Every structure is written in C-alpha cells, then in structure tokens.
Amino acid sequence: MLDQIIATKKEEVRLLEMPAPVAVKRVSLKQALLESTFDLGLIAEIKQASPSKGLLVETLDVKGIARSYQMAGASAISVLTDYPYFKGKKEYIKQVKDAVDLPVLRKDFIIDAKQVEESYRLGADAILLIAGVMEYNQLRELYEQAYELGLECLVEVHDEEEAHTLLQYIKPEIVGVNNRNLKTFQTSINQTELILPSLSKEAVIVSESGIRTKDDLIYLKNLGVHGVLMGETLMKATDRSKAIESLFANERTVR
Ligand SMILES: O=P(O)(O)OC[C@@H](O)[C@@H](O)c1c[nH]c2ccccc12
C-alpha cells in the first residue's frame, strides 16, 4: 500500500501546478506543543477517511471541526491534504488558518521540493516528513528547505533503525513516532516506548496513531513524550470538544 501511495505522489508531483501564495500569519508548532494547556500537547487531526478504516465521517465541516478543536484546547491542527487515500484537500489548510489561530500541520506524503514550496504557498505552518519513504539525503534537503522558508517539520519514524539512521543526517527539532506499522496498518502505542531511547533528548517528541483512551495518554505522558497526534478517535466523536475535554482536562499523571 505504501509503495502504491508513493507512486501516486510521484505522479501528483509531476503534474503539480504551483498555487499562488496565500497570506497567513505563521505560528510555531514546536512552541505550541511546549506551551500546551494540557499536560500533553495535542495535535488534533482533520481527516475524512483513511486507507485502513475507510470513510470516518460522511461530511466534513473543516472550519467547524477546527474551531471545536481549538475551543477544547488543542495545541495544533493536522490537516490531511491527500485526496486519493484520505479524501483530503489542499484548500483545507487555508480554511483552517482562517478559522483558528493554531499552527497547521500539512499531512501528506511529501517527497519532493515542489511540495515543500507548495505547502508554504498553501499557508501551512509545518509539514510532515516521513523517514523510510525517501532517501535520507533527500529528507535532509527537504527539511532544510522547509526551515529556510519558515516552515517547521514533524519528522516521522517507525522503528529504532529509522530513528538511528535519521540522527546521522539531521537533528530534527520535532520527531513523530508513528505507532502504526505502515506495512500492516496495525497500531501499538508500545512502539513509542520502544523507540524513545533512540531519539535525541533535545527533540520535542510526538506519539502518533492508535491513541484512544485516557489510559493511553497517561501511559504516554509518563514515558516523557511532549505531545500526541490523534485522528480517528476525535473524528468519530459525536461531540469533538467534549471528547478532548474528557480525555485531557484535569489530567493528572503519576510519575
Ligand atoms: O487516526 P489515528 O490512529 O489517531 O492516527 C492519526 C495519525 O497518526 C495518522 O493519520 C498518520 C500518521 N502518520 C501519517 C502519515 C500519513 C498519513 C496519515 C498519518
């Protein structure tokens, strides 16, 4: 599946027409995660569908969802812009930027410099870069290009080997540990515990995927991660603000 997605992206890149830049006020994802109102920073995700779960919601009120995430205290918003696999759209980034003040992470499969420039023009504050879907030299180039444009990167790893190799190329400021095995689509939040010792102590760490309950959050907080990225659980909630409030508010963790 991942190979197929990357093949689709290569074709998209070939056909990409650069949009005109939109005017937005950029805000820092890293800072938002560190200054979270909760014990853990929350990157709340907007996605209509996923390859593993199919359609998550029938209709998508992008601005309304963004507002309910902000109201409940999310630190940042992740927006899927891939259409073929996640039913995302590029224009959602500007819609979210217009609706809220939170940093917006563009969630897509970015493998080419053109997509980094495009993300900047679409108004994103940060982009996702996935280790394992391109050469590490390429990842480093895209990372540097992004920071030169004033975009931050969430650099995603899936296992210890990727974490080790990554550190030989860049010292990412924000690292995402994806608990989902991209080959089997299974999630296990223990993956974060396994990989954490291989990550730089200075990096801001975000645990991604398969996070559902307050117990999951307490477990991750006690591991020492700075933030979590949640998609499906929030998208499927009938009242998204309430879901965030009951998962995060007054959260007390034991060390
Ligand atoms: O819906 P979940 O299980 O809460 O997971 C969200 C997020 O981690 C997931 O959407 C994701 C993580 N890395 C990605 C890379 C591409 C597309 C999607 C993703």
Automatic annotation (TrEMBL):
Residues 5-247 form the Indole-3-glycerol phosphate synthase domain. GO terms for biological process: L-tryptophan biosynthetic process. Pathway: Amino-acid biosynthesis; L-tryptophan biosynthesis; L-tryptophan from chorismate: step 4/5. Pfam families: IGPS. It catalyses: 1-(2-carboxyphenylamino)-1-deoxy-D-ribulose 5-phosphate + H(+) = (1S,2R)-1-C-(indol-3-yl)glycerol 3-phosphate + CO2 + H2O. GO terms for molecular function: indole-3-glycerol-phosphate synthase activity; phosphoribosylanthranilate isomerase activity. Keywords: Amino-acid biosynthesis, Aromatic amino acid biosynthesis, Decarboxylase, Lyase, Tryptophan biosynthesis. It is an enzyme of class 4 (lyase). Its EC number is 4.1.1.48. Belongs to the TrpC family. This is Indole-3-glycerol phosphate synthase. It comes from Shouchella lehensis G1. The gene is trpC.
